[in-house]
Amino acid sequence: MEASIEKAKLSYERAISTGDVSELGAAEEELDRLEADLALARGRILHARFLDDRREDPRELPLFERATHLYRALGDAAGEANSVFWEGCFHQVVRNDPARAIPLLEQSYGLATAAGDRHTEWEVLRHLGIADHAAGRLDSAREHLEASVRLCRELGLPAAVAANQVGLIYIAAAQGRRDDAVALAAEAYATAEGCGAGRIVRQIVEARTQALAPDLDQSAP
Asked: Is 90 helix (H, G, I), strand (E, B) or coil?
């Protein structure tokens, strides 16, 4: 960050002292990239706050949209894929508006796939699975979440694996696959506990309680 700002300062000083404006374009591009990264990071911070207190911050969506505009102008497909994902996530999670969220998530997935951005791919697959689950499309939800789990395993993201398995527990129970649900609950619990993901551990316990209570002794994890 400091290097980009210093470069912009030096480019300005060169331009006004010598008339050489050849470095202004590159300096401006660096600042645009920095602004995009900062907007995305700030938006994610606000999203995390929403997950904690469930109060929408009016700054969140404009930050993601600003990042998308800048990444698109820079020709940064991976950056655009990430910011478009967060726009979709906002509409899905904060606004509960799948009609606006799903097209953005699908757009993000196309961009991420083209750019080879597997980190955005797994997040999009997860949220498409959540959308399918909410709409009662259990087979499609399972496919999306299992694909996300595979990517998370490849990327070495155990907490994300366990988080996806929470949804798979509910889906397995709803489909009458009780043995699968039991196995998923045990695996997810061990994975989340092993990487210190306390919030996900609590979600797994809740999933067991809601989806499997008739069949399981709840005294065991």
From this structure: helix
Residue listed under structure tokens 């366990």: 162
Task: Verify that 132 and 183 share a domain, yes or no.
Answer: no
Q: How many CA atoms lie within 13 A of 189 on its CB side?
A: 15
Same domain? 30 vs 97: yes
Choose one of 105, 140, 175: the last residue of a domain: 140
The two tokens of residue 152 are: 């998370």
For 185-213, how does the pLDDT look when each residue is reduced to its tens digit (9 = 90+)?
A: 999 999 999 999 999 999 999 999 988 77
Alpha helices in the chain (DSSP H): 2-18, 24-53, 60-74, 77-89, 98-115, 118-134, 138-155, 158-174, 178-194, 198-212
117 in the same domain as 16: yes
The residue among 172, 180, 102 whose CA lies nearest residue 139 is 172
Which residues of the chain are modeled with pLDDT < 70? 214-221
By C-alpha distance, which of 112, 111, 133 is closest to 122? 112
Reading phi first (left if > 0) and then psi (alpha if -120 to 50, else beta), residue 136 is in left
Six-digit token string for 56: 């929408």
Q: What is the distance between the alpha carbons of residues 63 and 46, in angstroms, rounded to a whole number?
A: 10
> Do 161 and 136 sit in the same domain of this protein?
no
Domain presence at residue 145? no
Count the domains in the chain: 2
